UniProtKB/TrEMBL annotation:
Claim: Cell cycle is one of the keywords in the record: no
GO cellular component, one term: membrane
Signal peptide: none
Cell compartment(s), UniProt: Membrane
Residue intervals of the EamA domain: 9-136, 149-281
Descriptive protein name: Membrane protein
SUPFAM superfamilies: Multidrug resistance efflux transporter EmrE
Regions that span the bilayer: 7-27, 33-54, 66-85, 91-112, 119-140, 146-164, 184-203, 209-227, 234-256, 262-288
Length: 297
């Protein structure tokens, strides 16, 4: 991995970790439906401008069914669930729950595609579940039973990502950029029916409006472009390492910007979740280093 690719990886992790910060800032005022509708709309427009610049045609009609499935499972549903959870949960908890997506993806693959689960994968799943229990069960901010629903929403959002990743295995072979572009427009459509039923809570101030714009343009549109560039430069396996950096940045942003406290349970839960994710995905620093050296030859 070159220095430029490494810097892109760090920037991407910082941006995606920041997405939970921006949701935490804007969700209480915008509500989950309007927040995510604005987010995917700004992202779709950013990708449209990029597509026009690159002279890429989307051909939405030809793959409409695929885009709508992907837009629901990989964007609209998990984004709304995380936005709902962001009204209550801290940035660090949101980021760590997001990291369990790979664990759920492996479990879903076992039932859906009959993909065998190795002993390492099973141990990883147990570690991940224990990490979530420690993260939530020992957090003094989550003692109210009413907060079980936000935690469940965060878990279900990660499960939705797991379903989307398994759907993608048998989905039409479409360029990654087109998948992102088409699924964003599909997500815009999916969210429209929710708007009358989940209204905005108040008139947003300039900080909240800026957070929503940053969510759409930077954390979704630009982040996707960085991610695709990473896959192109270093491969999907190395690009996956961003998963393990996002919770760290989520904790840092929450502490620096919102003064969220970082307890021993947060750190312990993060270590177990990320350790479990590494076992499930087969990722390890040693393996990553070997692949990086092989590409350098």
């Amino acid at each position: 991995m070159t220095l430029s690719s490494f810097l892109r990886l760090i920037c991407l992790a910082a941006i995606w970790g920041g997405s939970f910060l921006f949701m935490r800032i804007a969700a209480p005022t915008f509500g989950p439906a309007y927040l995510i509708e604005f987010r995917v709309s700004f992202a779709a427009l950013a990708l449209l401008v990029t597509a026009l610049y690159l002279k890429r045609s989307l051909h939405f009609r030809a793959h409409a069914r695929h885009y709508f499935i992907l837009g629901l499972l990989n964007t609209a549903l998990p984004f709304v669930l995380f936005a709902y959870a962001a009204q209550t949960l801290t940035v660090s908890v949101l980021a760590i729950l997001n990291a369990t997506a790979a664990i759920w993806g492996a479990l879903i693959a076992f039932f859906w595609h009959r993909t065998p689960l190795s002993v390492k994968s099973l141990i990883g799943m147990v570690l991940g579940i224990c990490g979530v229990i420690i993260l939530v069960g020992w957090d003094q901010t989550l003692v109210s039973e009413a907060l079980i629903w936000p935690v469940l929403a965060g878990v279900l959002a990660a499960v939705s990502y797991g379903v989307a990743s398994n759907y993608a295995k048998n989905a039409p072979q479409i360029a990654a950029f087109d998948n992102a572009h088409g699924s964003m427009w599909a997500a815009v459509v999916w969210l429209v029916p929710l708007l009358p039923f989940i209204p905005m809570r108040a008139v947003p101030d300039s900080t909240e409006i800026s957070a929503v714009i940053a969510l759409g343009v930077i954390c979704t549109g630009i982040a996707y472009l960085l991610y695709f560039r990473l896959i192109s430069d270093v491969g999907a396996a190395s690009a996956l390492s961003v998963t393990f950096l996002i919770p760290l940045f989520g904790i840092v942003w929450g502490y620096l910007v919102l003064d969220e406290q970082v307890g021993i349970n947060t750190l312990g839960g993060m270590i177990l979740v990320l350790g479990g994710t590494m076992l499930v995905t087969g990722f390890s620093p040693a393996t990553w280093q070997t692949k990086r050296a092989a590409r350098a030859r």
